[in-house]
Amino acid sequence: MSNQVPTGGASTTAKDEEIANKKLPPGVVLDKDGKPCRVCTSAASWRAMTKKAAASSAAAAGAAAAATTAAASSSNSTSTTAAPTSTPPDDCPPDVEALGRSTWTFLHSLTAAYPTTATPEQQAEMRSFLNLFSRLYPCWVCADDFRAWMNEPGGRNQPRLAGRAEFGHWMCEAHNAVNRKLGKKEFDCRFWEERWRTGWKDGRCD
């Protein structure tokens, strides 16, 4: 995926053009309007982009001013980013990882609350929700991937909504598809209900 921002058009601003002419750090995803997408990007990549932008602004300010600004920027970055792997405070906008964790918690909880046997109306409502979700999810790249996975040829990934057991297993498969893409460990879907509905049999959740 390209990190270059499209230029031109009536909505293009000087700041947009400035971003377009600079190579963005790896991992920064652009929104469909060509601007960096916060909820599509990890916190680490977002910080790298903002630090780079701050450094570029300081360098353009003139020799003396640039030296002073660079020193202050260096001092500030030392005190505020001493632990680059730490997560942002809870009152910051979510990055793609925080959004993903919260979303999977919601989706698995949705399957846990689904009826043991769903009526045709309940199935239709859930199918409608999943279709809308795959279009409205804030990270557009993630939304496109989820929609593409559901609509793979042959219909093998179409939502299975007859009842809780098969819907929960289907959601687990959807989550594992994302885990594989991200190089993460897959979850054993035989245990989805203990993880998301009943709690583990060893009593650790009681």
Automatic annotation (TrEMBL):
Named cofactor requirement(s): FAD
Polar residues compositional bias, start-end: 1-13
Localization in the cell: Mitochondrion intermembrane space
Segments for region (Disordered): 1-35, 70-95
Reaction(s) catalysed by this chain's protein: 2 R'C(R)SH + O2 = R'C(R)S-S(R)CR' + H2O2
GO CC term (a single one): mitochondrial intermembrane space
Keywords, in A-Z order: Disulfide bond, FAD, Flavoprotein, Mitochondrion, Oxidoreductase
Domain ERV/ALR sulfhydryl oxidase: 92-196
Main location: mitochondrion
One example of a Gene Ontology biological process annotation: intracellular iron ion homeostasis
Biased composition (Low complexity): 70-85
EC number: 1.8.3.2
GO MF annotation, one: flavin adenine dinucleotide binding
Name of this protein: Sulfhydryl oxidase
Organism annotation: Rasamsonia emersonii (strain ATCC 16479 / CBS 393.64 / IMI 116815)
